[in-house]
Amino acid sequence: MLHMTSRLIQRTFRLRSTVTQVVMEKPCILATTLGAPGGIYKCFAPCIEKHFTIIPYERFVQRKEDFADKIQAVFVWGAGALKVDQNLLQSLPNLKAVVNGGVGVDHLDIPLINSFGVNVSNTPQVVDNATADIGVSLMLASARKIVEGHIFSKFRDSDDFPESSLGTDVTGATLGIIGMGRIGYKIAKRTQGFEMKILYHNRNRRPESEESAVGATYCANMKMLLQRSDFVMVVVNLSPQTHKLIGAKEFAMMKPNSTFINISRGLVVDQDALVDALKKKMIRAAALDVTYPEPLPRDHPLLALPNVIVLPHVGTHTVETSQIMVERMVTNALAAVTGGQLPDEVKA
Ligand SMILES: O=C(O)[C@H](O)CO
């Protein structure tokens, strides 16, 4: 009997150590809530767990000494998530990569990260379609008062349409795109279905945008684009050059019936100037996927204005795009932990 018990204990121990070994065999990654806010990427954890053991940030903070030297990659989703600062970098001696979900890396100090011998990657291209779709959706929703219409249907006091429910035409209107990168180009192509005239402003001229499939007209001077556009859409990366690129001066140049759409980063716009422009009816409306901060405090003046749509930065939030984004992050992290070149490395 004693013999049997001892064999059982031995077996259990062997089994336990095998399980522990399997868990520890996988390299560890550090992740916040698997996507802030709200941990929406949690449902994609199985895709990551095929290759890595996920250490949630909250667990890491409680037991740093257990995990610090095991973590080889940090997964970051956007600016609201984990702060990769000097303190964190110093506490992870075996870190090889900071893997960002999404294309914008303005929230990461790449020179600082690189100075620790750590590479940075993002997920370019895979986000382009979803982000272009949200830009076009915001333009249509604002122009045709989709949100107001829904609110009216749900909460109306009377069945009379208010005068303010009248929208503005998209078909045949002029769209000014500030930032003609891959996403800007996709937006321009999509709007051909609406027979829109496209103006674009970009650091460099993009001849492919001017070809017949898109037919965009280059405005070397942003002033010309602002003065002529019915819809102005900002699609630039956030950088020191684009910080508060659109402010009081730019809003003053826009048409009173124009709509301002931002799908890039909140800090590209002087938000106080935007509130002022909307209140003074210098522009018709604004539709924003990005703000500063995110999410906006509920008592922010932008949310009190009737002619504003604010989304909580959901440009890439589709099941399909998020899945591909996570797979791409895993590919980059695997390259990093096996000593390979990161396919989507972002250089400083
Ligand atoms: O940068 C991006 O790709 C999106 O804004 C998600 O953060």
TrEMBL record:
Residues 136-315 form the D-isomer specific 2-hydroxyacid dehydrogenase NAD-binding domain. It comes from the Eukaryota. GO terms for cellular component: cytosol. Keywords: Oxidoreductase. CDD domains: GDH. Residues 66-346 form the D-isomer specific 2-hydroxyacid dehydrogenase catalytic domain. Belongs to the D-isomer specific 2-hydroxyacid dehydrogenase family. This is Glyoxylate reductase/hydroxypyruvate reductase. It comes from Sinocyclocheilus grahami.
